[in-house]
UniProtKB/TrEMBL annotation:
Family annotation (InterPro entries): CB (IPR044068), DNA_brk_join_enz (IPR011010), Integrase-like_cat_sf (IPR013762), Integrase_recombinase_N (IPR010998), Integrase_SAM-like_N (IPR004107)
Name recorded for this polypeptide: Site-specific integrase
Taxonomic path: Bacteria, Bacillati, Actinomycetota, Actinomycetes, Micromonosporales
Domain of life according to the entry: Bacteria
Gene3D superfamilies linked: 1.10.150.130, Intergrase catalytic core
Keyword DNA-binding attached: yes
Organism: Micromonospora echinofusca
UniProt keyword annotations, A-Z: DNA recombination, DNA-binding
SUPFAM superfamilies for the chain: DNA breaking-rejoining enzymes
Keyword Phosphoprotein attributed: no
Domain Core-binding (CB): 11-98
């Protein structure tokens, strides 16, 4: 759903755009992103055709002229920030053309420091929108969980799968993962194919991480515990109802018959051949197809599943998010206006909240340690290894410390004392940042304790 289809005047699909949009859909790009990409690239195609060129024959001059037209001469000109978003769409399209062998390389040159000349090269501020504890609990329990604003059971709630949605919200917050990361997690990565007991676990992100950049993710006990009701009550029902669909699609699926290397690898039938795949190396498309042959039926390997036993797409989670937003707006009464921002929360706001709260907590720990030992006793090496910014950068998988550095301006909480505010998160249940911080700081499991 939400995949653009570009048709010519003769009502035939326009290639390579349609194939590109199909790949974006399989990669779980959101409907909003694909709509924006479709607008940009169809406009580019019309511009090139008017110049006697097309997407595969366009030169750097053609694309620079398109940029100039968009910024200065079009009927509705755009800002440089908007052009950078257009440039991202064009870059993604031409990367697709290179992968398909339709062109040898991007038609524009790289400039200094690897920057592509098509974009403006202007580094813009990261917009950080984070939640307070009350806002988060209102989102998780009322919006996603269907409770009343008073925290009691709302008998009028007719939403779908509240346990799954609350667990997803908690997993996103307490791990700091991006939506394309937490929504594609598989059961073996959380150790949930053995006794099924949810517990704290650490695993490595691979193909589903941004740019495929690997990093370790720690799932604390609170996040794992909230998975329990979903795994016990909702997921078995979803999977049971999906059996007829899964059996009918069996030839299209990756039917896993055996787990190897303690769940790090899976072996099964894919496209008629027996293959072995590293779980870490499985991309979102393959993860959507992976099901386990249990003897009693087919069980999707995906943690979060929806209708038909399929992994929820980004657009599916968007529908869940907007339904939660509508519910929160209806539930927010007098004295609760501060629980809602001016516009709908997005899942990435949970990642920002994770980063900021963990940074605050680690900073507090560092200050306490310095006070305990005296500043003169802290060596340069100890300072570097315990640097809160570096720890948060590692946990978030930021390529550059400059991205993490932008959170510093939010360290000062204008509403209350920082230490007290953060202490509230660690004792309220569902946000055990002290536990997360220990894993962020230890570096390795066998590090000596001091």
């Amino acid at each position: 759903m939400g995949t653009p289809i570009v048709l010519s005047e003769s009502m035939t699909p326009v290639e390579p755009l349609c194939s590109w949009f199909r790949e974006l859909s399989l990669d779980r790009r959101s409907v909003k992103t694909m709509r924006a990409y479709a607008y940009t690239t169809t406009m580019l195609l019309r511009f090139l055709l008017a110049r006697g060129a097309d997407l595969t024959s366009a030169t750097e001059t053609d694309l620079q002229e398109f940029r100039r037209w968009r910024l200065d001469d079009a009927e509705q000109t755009i800002s440089e920030a908007a052009w950078d978003r257009d440039a991202a769409a064009i870059g993604s399209l031409y990367d697709f053309l290179v992968r398909r062998g339709m062109i040898a390389r991007r038609p524009w040159r790289a400039t200094g420091r690897g920057r592509r000349s098509l974009s403006t090269g202007v580094s813009r501020d990261l917009r950080v929108r984070h939640m307070g504890l009350e806002q988060y609990l209102f989102l998780r329990d009322v919006g996603f969980g269907g409770l009343a604003a008073s925290a009691g059971l709302d008998e009028r709630f007719r939403g779908w799968r509240p346990h799954r949605n609350r667990a997803a919200c908690e997993l996103a917050l307490l791990t700091g993962m991006r939506i394309q990361e937490w929504s594609t997690v598989l059961l073996p990565e959380l150790g949930l194919l053995g006794d099924g007991q949810a517990r704290a676990v650490e695993f490595e992100l691979g193909a589903c991480a941004k740019f495929g950049r690997p990093r370790r993710v720690y799932v604390p006990a609170d996040a794992a515990e909230l998975l329990g009701p979903y795994l016990l009550l909702e997921r078995p029902e979803i999977v049971a109802k999906a059996q007829s669909v899964l059996r009918r699609r069996r030839r299209e699926l990756f039917v896993v018959t055996r787990l190897e290397a303690d769940g790090a690898k899976v072996r099964g039938l894919l496209d008629g051949a027996v293959v072995t795949r590293s779980v870490r190396g499985m991309d979102p498309r393959l993860r959507r197809l992976a099901v386990l042959e249990t003897g009693d039926g087919l069980d999707p390997l995906a943690l979060f599943v929806g209708t038909g036993g399929r992994m929820l797409t980004a657009s599916g989670w968007d529908r869940v998010r907007w339904a939660a937003w509508d519910r929160m707006r209806a539930q927010a009464g007098d004295g609760q206006a501060g629980l809602l921002p001016g516009r709908c929360w997005v899942f990435h706001d949970l990642r920002h909240t994770f980063a900021l709260r963990l940074l605050i907590y680690l900073t507090e720990l560092a200050l306490q340690e310095l006070q305990r030992r005296g500043a003169s006793m802290a060596t340069l090496l100890e300072h570097m290894s315990g640097n809160p910014l570096l720890q948060v950068q590692r946990r978030l998988g930021h390529a550059s410390p400059a991205t993490t550095y932008r959170y510093i301006r939010y360290l000062k909480d204008p509403m209350r004392d920082v230490a007290q505010a953060f202490r509230a998160w660690t004792v309220a249940g569902g946000a055990t940042y002290a536990e997360i911080a220990r894993h962020a700081l230890d570096g390795q499991a066998d590090a000596p304790q001091r």
